[in-house]
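TICKET: design request
STATUS: open
ATTACHED STRUCTURE:
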């Protein structure tokens, strides 16, 4: 005797939770690709990413709704709802992480080691082209107390090297850090002995650019290295510019200790 077995129907909310989460991840990948490889305007890329986050939040709501329906009716789809929830949380974890980082930090995106005379960005054709014709805004003196409180270790670097040696050291360290050297001027010993280096560092995910100006200036018995790092996107740099300096200072120290 045959028995008719009727399977419980799937929860539609569970199915759409997974589909929406997958689509959100795809949209996020497109946003990152547009910013990092296609050179699309940061605002457009962030708009696409914001849409991806909205979809991830919707998928999370659908997963929660599916969980309630499955619990009450015994419908199938618990695995799909759980996977949709996991994918959504994985995507939402990144902005949550950034928010946690930004919470204790000041709303600044411009860090310098010299408040009185921040290193200037170069005006050469190569430098302007690398910045897409833009010039970082003038340093805002109102940022001084904010930077001092948040990043007290951002200070000038003094080295017991001749200006030319310090200039070569800075170039090597910048390249080792993965910064793109835009342009540079070696020390002009006939004038003031000051050297300039301009570089670009990029954020790890979206590849947003931070413009970095380094100045090498001779003192009486030492050489002083100053740095200014400015983010092109937003008023909050999530500590990136201070981290550029910290990595740079640590790399310079390591290079000085090499035999």
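STATUS: resolved
RESOLUTION: sequence designed for all positions
ATTACHED SEQUENCE:
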């Amino acid at each position: 005797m045959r028995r008719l077995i009727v399977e419980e129907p799937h929860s539609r909310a569970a199915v759409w939770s997974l589909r929406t989460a997958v689509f959100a991840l795809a949209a996020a990948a497109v946003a990152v690709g547009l910013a990092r490889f296609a050179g699309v305007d940061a605002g457009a890329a962030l708009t696409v990413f914001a849409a991806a986050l909205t979809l991830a939040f919707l998928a999370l709501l659908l997963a929660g709704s599916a969980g309630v329906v499955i619990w009450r009716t015994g419908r199938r789809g618990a695995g799909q709802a759980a996977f949709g929830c996991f994918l959504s949380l994985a995507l939402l974890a990144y902005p949550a992480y950034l928010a946690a980082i930004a919470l204790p930090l000041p709303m600044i995106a411009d860090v310098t080691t010299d408040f009185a005379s921040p290193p200037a960005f170069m005006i050469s054709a190569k430098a302007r082209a690398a910045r897409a014709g833009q010039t970082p805004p003038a340093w805002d003196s109102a940022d001084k107390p904010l930077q001092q409180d948040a990043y007290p270790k951002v200070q000038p670097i003094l080295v017991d090297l001749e200006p030319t040696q310090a200039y070569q050291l800075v170039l090597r360290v910048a390249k080792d850090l993965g910064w793109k050297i835009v342009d540079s001027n070696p020390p002009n010993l006939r004038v003031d002995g000051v050297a300039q280096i301009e570089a670009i560092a990029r954020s790890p995910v979206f590849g947003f650019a931070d413009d970095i100006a380094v100045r090498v200036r001779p003192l009486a018995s030492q050489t002083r290295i100053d740095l200014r790092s400015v983010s092109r996107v937003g008023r909050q740099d999530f500590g990136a510019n201070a981290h550029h300096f910290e990595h740079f200072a640590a790399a310079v120290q390591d290079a000085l200790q090499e035999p």
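CLOSING REMARK: The mean pLDDT is 91. The chain has two domains: 12-102, 110-256.
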